[in-house]
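Researcher: We're teaching a course module on how sequence relates to structure. For the next exercise, students receive a sequence and then see the predicted structure as tokens, so they can try to spot secondary structure elements on their own. Here is the exercise chain.
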Amino acid sequence: MLELDLKEKGYDQRLLGDLNLQIAAGDRLALVGPSGCGKTTLLNIIGGLDRAFKGQRRLADPEPKIAYMFQEPRLLPWRTVEQNLRMVCSSRNQALDLLDEVALLEAACRYPRELSLGMARRVALARALALEPDLLLLDEPLVSLDPSTALRMLRLVETLLKKRPKMALVLVSHNPDDAVRIGAQLLEFDTATGEVLLPNNEKSASAGQLLV
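Model: And here is the predicted structure for the students to work with:
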């Protein structure tokens, strides 16, 4: 589906480098490490949003559909929940079905300002799923949520993945336990250097073969 051959990424100093990663259908991968170590930067490179790096990003033919759920829900404030989804859904029924799947059908007529952060994140997740992606990218979906809301969100992601076994996932998280719960393999970043740690000091790995 996707292969990333990353030689170097950095600004004033080297942030990421020397990594070859392959992502195939059904893979579950979590980028885990401290703040500022390059997790979201790597996610942006995988998603094609950041092209300012040395190396190559290769996609399969036909190209996979990639959906990205950002930390901020990024909903249009002047549109209702349903209207936000209708912008990417093929029909009203699809929008309502997705809202039902994320347990927000009753909020279809609400505006983003009327939603909690947890609810807004679920709308953003539904919007990403509307694209029927081959690869779903989640950037810290549990950050800033209270423990009970975070647990509900984690369970929801777990359920959605079980319904879509062929959809690949790359998740950014601070918590390895959350990643393991949804069956993701861990790609850890060194807390001191930010370097990506692969099994046995290797430089190449398949997301489906990484060791937890």
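Model: If you want an answer key for the exercise: The longest helix spans residues 147-163. The beta strands are 2-10, 14-23, 28-32, 54-59, 66-69, 135-139, 168-173, 185-189, 196-197, 204-206.
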